[in-house]
């Protein structure tokens, strides 16, 4: 955990040098993949599957899965789950093998590619059958 927190801190320190990803570049980097999302201190927040057509499935650590979408609003990538706007909007930039997100409220998050096996959605049907995806998850 200390090594991961140190690596995340180094990414945060260098993130001021990177350029924001366009929505298209963000989509290219995330579509068809699962990412673990960490707080700036290295604590795991949860996992998210990025699907075709900007659909997502989010699972907070120890919680159920929520279907949603992401869209662009005022230059931010904003997430909507269950049709409700939780006010979760970020700009992103690639930093080595992670993606650093900065929210419109000043929080920083780190996205690191993970495995679909890290998603443990307690649903009757398999996770990937719930989504209309046309890509292969890594």
CATH class equals Mainly Beta
Output the strand order for the largest sheet.
Answer: 1-2-3-4-5-6-7-8
Q: What best-fitting shape do the alpha-carbon axes yield?
A: globular
The overall average pLDDT, rounded, is: 80
Classify the beta-strand content into a percent band: 35-45%
Class inferred from helices and paired strands: alpha+beta
Rg for CA atoms: 14 Å
**Structural domains: how many:** 1
Tally of strands: 8
Which runs of at least 5 residues are low in confidence (pLDDT < 50)?
A: 1-16, 131-138
Major β-sheet profile = 8 strands, antiparallel, barrel
Proportion of helical residues: 10-25%
- Return the string of H and E elements: HHEEEEEEEE
CATH architecture: Beta Barrel
Cα distance spanning the termini: 24 Å
CATH topology name, in short, is Lipocalin
Question: Describe it for me?
Answer:
By secondary structure, the protein is α+β, with helices and mostly antiparallel strands. The chain has helices at residues 2-15, 23-30, and strands at 33-39, 44-50, 55-60, 65-73, 76-81, 84-95, 98-103, 108-114. 16% of the residues lie in helices and 43% in strands. An eight-stranded antiparallel barrel has the order 1-2-3-4-5-6-7-8. β4 and β5 form a beta hairpin. Mean pLDDT is 80; it is low at 1-16 and 131-138.
